[in-house]
Amino acid sequence: MRKLAKLxxxxxxANLWRYLKAxxxxxxxxxxxxxxxxxxxxxxxxxxSPVDLxxxxxxxxxxxxxxxxxPLGVALVVKxxxxxxxxxxxxxxxxxxxxxxxxxxxxxxxLVIWLAVLGVATKWLIQNL
Length: 129
What we know:
Blueprint: H1 2-10, H2 13-28, H3 34-47, H4 61-80, H5 85-95, H6 104-128
């Protein structure tokens, strides 16, 4: 529980944009391992998607998914990186002035997940009714 509280306190709103910029820069760096690039892309796609997995108007759960999934994605990327590369990307993110784009891939990812959940639920209902 202490690690989770530490993770939440480390990723506040000001640092979130910095971390997302660093993830964006990591995606294009040749020194980034393939697994870290994939996790960085998925984290960015979800964070910058115009649609959330659980809509924000649903009490507690709507905001909880953002508080859990994005920091976990960032933490996993950091674990997969060679030493020193994350600090280098954070420094580059501080200097970077461009805006992060809205990612249509994030929308597609969320829609695919919802369609898969809907398909599994439909199959379960058909089998159990």
